[in-house]
Amino acid sequence: MDIRLLTYYLKVAQVGNITKAAQQLHITQPTLSRQLTKLEEEVGAQLLTRSQHHLALTEAGVTFERRAKQILSLLATTKKELQTQQNDLAGLLKIGCVESKLSLEVANWLQAFQAKHPQVQFEFYDADGDDLKEKLDTHYLDFAFLIEPVETAKYNFLTLPYYDQWGIIVNKSHPLAKQKSLSLGDLKDEKLILPRRNIVKAEIDSWLAPLQALSPKFFINLPSNANFLVLNHNYCALGIEGILTLNAHPDLRFIPFAPSHHSGHVLAWRKNNHLGSLEQHFLAYIQALIK
User: Fold this and answer.
1) Shortest CA distance to 214 belongs to which of 174, 241, 184, 181?
2) Among 60, 79, 230, 288, fewest CB within 10 Å belongs to which?
3) 26: exposed, middle or buried (Cβ count in 10 Å: 0-12, 13-18, 19+)
4) Domain 163-262 belongs to what topology?
5) Would you place residue 85 in the very low, low, confident or very high pLDDT band (cuts 50, 70, 90)?
6) Contact 177, 170 (CB under 8 A)
7) How far apart are CA 248 and CA 80, in angstroms?
8) Is 17 left (phi over 0), alpha (psi -120 to 50) or beta?
């Protein structure tokens, strides 16, 4: 199969219009239409439903879109590995990281690695653990720095000696902002925002309280929207102290729980996945840092 067909298909899937896709691909609309028909004949399935002004993906088309992205990602990784074999370390490393105290350390590590190997580029992606694991599974990321708890069955992982404390983030004008620590009873009748990840909900359920008792009002993946609600509508966001390390604001306060609860971090990568020279060097670099 011509790799260009995958690129053409993904562009059409992205914009939903053959004319616009052809313009962005710098080919004619009839040429693009013929290529899409050729692709459907080659895979033996209808990938698109066509109307006068819009295209939509069929169920087979959605599956093919996901696989096409994986194929192109694997091709890019292969090229990167071959390039690395030919040169002193060079290529693109795709790194994901949760938003926590570790984030600043990771940024420093990447800068130092790049200083040693100037031909190395990084794609740096921040998200919550569920998104990062999905990106690992689909080969979009090479490595992900995650905060525990983590389902590690599908991954190799390296435990990192970095921990983040759990507590509540509130507006400095909130009555709780004056306290040095919090217990479950302090959260009664408060408008709570919790992380959305099911494994984190289960962890909170085990060490703090059942979710039914907490009566959360919002579930979030990243803290930006939560901080707006905390600042402007007096919500309380349950999270880690590292959120304010990255998103410092003079009107936000972090109050830890008592007794305290901390979460560790891991560096994860896919099992049964051959690491190229660049990935091996990066992993060895991180291992040396944490010894």
Assistant:
1) 184
2) 288
3) exposed
4) D-Maltodextrin-Binding Protein; domain 2 (3.40.190)
5) low
6) yes
7) 37
8) beta
Residue 180 has pLDDT above 90, yes or no: yes
pLDDT of residue 222: 80
Which two tokens mark 256?
A: 């830890």
Which class for 41: exposed (0-12), middle (13-18), buried (19 or more C-beta within 10 A)?
Answer: exposed
Fold of 89-161+265-290: D-Maltodextrin-Binding Protein; domain 2 (3.40.190)
Most confident of 37-51, 61-75, 106-120, 146-160: 106-120
Is the domain defined by 3-71 classed in CATH 3.40.50.300?
no
* pTM > 0.85: no
Task: Specify the DSSP element, H or E, that contains 250.
Answer: none
Domain range summary for the chain, segments of one domain joined by +: 3-71, 89-161+265-290, 163-262
Report pLDDT digits (tens) over 215-242. Answer: 889 999 887 778 889 999 999 999 999 9
| Structure token pair of residue 271 | 């099992």
* Rg of the chain taking only CA atoms, in angstroms: 23
The fraction of the chain above a pLDDT of 90, given in percent, is: 49
Burial 103-125, CB ≥16 within 10 A → b, else e: bebbeebbeebeeebeebebeee
